[in-house]
Amino acid sequence: HAKRLGGDRVEVFRPTLQTGTRSRAELEGDLRKALKTDGITVFYQPIVRLVDRSIAGFEVLARWNHPTRGAISPAEFIPIAEQSGIINELGLFVLDKGARQLADWQQSFRLPVPLFASVNISSLQLLRHDLINDVKSVLSRSSIAPGTLKLELTESVVMANPEYSARMLERLRALGAGLSLDDFGTGYSSLSYLQRFRFDTIKVDQSFVRPNGRSARPVILRSIIALGHDLGMQVVAEGAETESDSLELHQLGCEYAQGFLFGQPMEAAQATKLLQAEMDALRS
Ligand code: C2E
Ligand code: MG
Ligand code: MG
Ligand code: MG
């Protein structure tokens, strides 16, 4: 059905969610409950160095296992969490869990370069001053090396409120946290902002790594990688699925990649096994 908004504008209400048999309000309640009852967990997806495919770090990704609906994708529940304010609690949970796991791995596996963990931060978390305190306390109660906790922010977050975001990012940087610009190329970034915000990493969006028509890939991908490097940033390509994706990225000078080719998001125990195998290979 349609609802009339002033004048002759008509907005059609279409459900954007596959809510199954549960209403959005019910899902919101379910999500609140899930946070208190271990229904929300985190998975870890490896980010590798393309030169030798060694594991450089992991992205921490939230997962929701619903008691009756099964796994619900973050694309569905993150917006619910944002619109209901649950995101602050959920975000802190993921940050804390990821930092603790990272501390654990850094202690068990003395890799030549310390492992990092990269945590997604929602715009609503950035707009809330407590984020600074959250990050500060998470960093101080874990023993992780400074800079190995990276915060992933998207362009839309930063561009929506550049003055404020610039101050917040400086404060996060002052705490020693790494800053990654996620899904790069999908927003409306102004290149001058890119310089001003001084992210230390950009994550090239999957759509440039695996475009629908393959012909445009090398040109745009090459430009984005070069831009990142020229601005002194590290570049991570998202969504590498095939050997040819990986080869091409490496040839274009990209140092890091993440994607199904190197590993799906997985439970901590499975990620630990991967790290163990890598340590064994280093020793032999
Ligand atoms: P993102 O931060 O860009 O995370 C990367 C997404 O790409 C993940 O989806 C990952 O599973 C998927 N991916 C990785 N490699 C490949 C590949 O080779 N091919 C394809 N097709 N996909 C790949 P996921 O876990 O479903 O998360 C979706 C988005 O939800 C994330 O995108 C992020 O924006 C958001 N998200 C997930 N966890 C959190 C969280 O804890 N907090 C916040 N604020 N957002 C989160
Ligand atoms: Mg991300
Ligand atoms: Mg991304
Ligand atoms: Mg994404």
From TrEMBL:
Signal peptide: none annotated. The keyword Ribonucleoprotein does not apply. Residues 24-279 form the EAL domain. Keywords: Membrane, Transmembrane, Transmembrane helix. The keyword Transmembrane applies. This is Diguanylate cyclase/phosphodiesterase with PAS/PAC sensor(S). The chain holds residues 692 to 975 of 975 of the full protein.
